[in-house]
Amino acid sequence: MRVIGHRGTPTGPRHTENTLPAVVAALEAGADGVEVDVRTTADGVLVLAHDPDLGRVLGTGVGTGPVVAETPSAALRALRLPGGAHVSTLDEVLDLAADSRALVVAEVKAGLGARRARTAVLLADHLHGRRRRRPGADRVVPSSFDTVSARALAGCGTVGGAVILEPWQEPRRMAGWARRCGLTELHLSVEHVRRDPGLVADLHATGMAVAAGIVDDPEESARLARLGVDLLCTDAVARVGRRRGAVVPAGTASGRPAGAARGGRRRGPRRGRGEGLSAAQAGTRPSSSR
């Protein structure tokens, strides 16, 4: 099981989430990779930010800071976050992770209305471009709670692609939709696995890799490792990493080539009418705080 630092790592030495120092701290603490949140600036630059605005991380309160989507990247870069870090670009994190062969789970935050999938489309194009320039350098799993964004991300990740589920969504049903879209992983809430211990094995049997989070308890992380969870997202990298269980070979979250079922058949995107879920069918609600 691979251990992934949530937004880098907010525990241990204090670093502002979703910044280069937080990513470095997670990797130095023993993480196999990091999860970061991705938004788009007014001028189309992919940057790391969880909330629509930066008020919370600046310490002034949610809703009081610069809105990422409405602010040029240069203005965001001029800001200094607590601890002295600046707003990081996705490229900075990908370049850092590539040097250490670390995995990057890039969670796309959906926009509103007609701009709902803008970040996902930009990220997909960006990752394809990086792959042409630096073949084999990046190890990226793009992901999103938003089904429209997740579908737009299918096939652009160098390791896989994922849809993230809320606790009330049904994983087995969503697995079928994800496979038809060309996604290779389901990122579950830990509540899914708590109430259904056979779920991970069933999803693996369909060829899907499985991530779970957010888990900070070492005993629970060890239990999830025994159940076969491939990726564990945590705010406590060092503590959880000591109980992670066996580390799988490099490849994807599960050690399989991206898109390959357990029997070895490769699953590619299958597009066509009716392939996706509507918001109502998928149970789409506003994105989780994860």
From TrEMBL:
<feature type="domain" description="GP-PDE">
    <location>
        <begin position="1"/>
        <end position="244"/>
    </location>
</feature>
<dbReference type="GO" id="GO:0008081">
    <property type="term" value="F:phosphoric diester hydrolase activity"/>
</dbReference>
<dbReference type="GO" id="GO:0006629">
    <property type="term" value="P:lipid metabolic process"/>
</dbReference>
<protein>
    <submittedName>
        <fullName>Glycerophosphoryl diester phosphodiesterase</fullName>
    </submittedName>
</protein>
<dbReference type="InterPro" id="IPR030395">
    <property type="entry name" value="GP_PDE_dom"/>
</dbReference>
<dbReference type="Pfam" id="PF03009">
    <property type="entry name" value="GDPD"/>
</dbReference>
<feature type="compositionally biased region" description="Low complexity">
    <location>
        <begin position="248"/>
        <end position="260"/>
    </location>
</feature>
<feature type="region of interest" description="Disordered">
    <location>
        <begin position="248"/>
        <end position="290"/>
    </location>
</feature>
<dbReference type="InterPro" id="IPR017946">
    <property type="entry name" value="PLC-like_Pdiesterase_TIM-brl"/>
</dbReference>
